[in-house]
Amino acid sequence: MNPRVKKVFVSSDYKLSLLFTSGEHGVYDCSGLLEFGVFKELKNKAYFSQAEVVDGTVVWPHEQDICPDTLYLESAKEKASLTKNSS
């Protein structure tokens, strides 16, 4: 089983910065979904920004979600931390 999403941070360019339960970080680009079915609603940036983690995946208020395996396997993995570091 692939790691699940622990935290999500939303960007204004329809990307999700993800922290997985494995400690890995990744970025998933949602822009390719915006023309399909229930995902069209995500074009509204205010709505897109309401993404949250529920049961290890990313969901929105009107029940859109993305499979956690898809988020893990198709995200660009990063080494940098997603949280702000204080100096």
CATH H-level homologous superfamily name = NE0471-like N-terminal domain
Helix percent reads 10-25%
The N- to C-terminal Cα distance equals: 37 Å
Strand content: 25-35%
CATH topology-level name: NE0471 N-terminal domain-like
> Which structural class do the helices and strands define?
mainly beta
Number of domains: 1
Number of helical regions? 2
From the coordinates shown, what is the CATH architecture?
A: 2-Layer Sandwich
Overall pLDDT score: 91
Looking at the structure, what is the overall shape?
A: globular
Poorly predicted segments = 83-87
Question: Could you please describe the fold and organization of this structure?
Answer:
The protein has 87 residues and is mainly β. The chain has one domain (5-78): NE0471 N-terminal domain-like (2-Layer Sandwich), CATH 3.30.2020.10. It contains two helices and seven strands. It has helices at 45-48, 68-74; strands at 5-10, 15-20, 25-29, 52-54, 57-59, 65-66, 76-78. It has a four-stranded antiparallel beta sheet with strand order 1-2-3-7, with helices on one face. A three-stranded antiparallel beta sheet has the order 4-5-6. Strand 5 (57-59) and strand 6 form a beta hairpin. The radius of gyration is 13 Å and the shape is globular. The model is unreliable at 83-87 (pLDDT under 50).
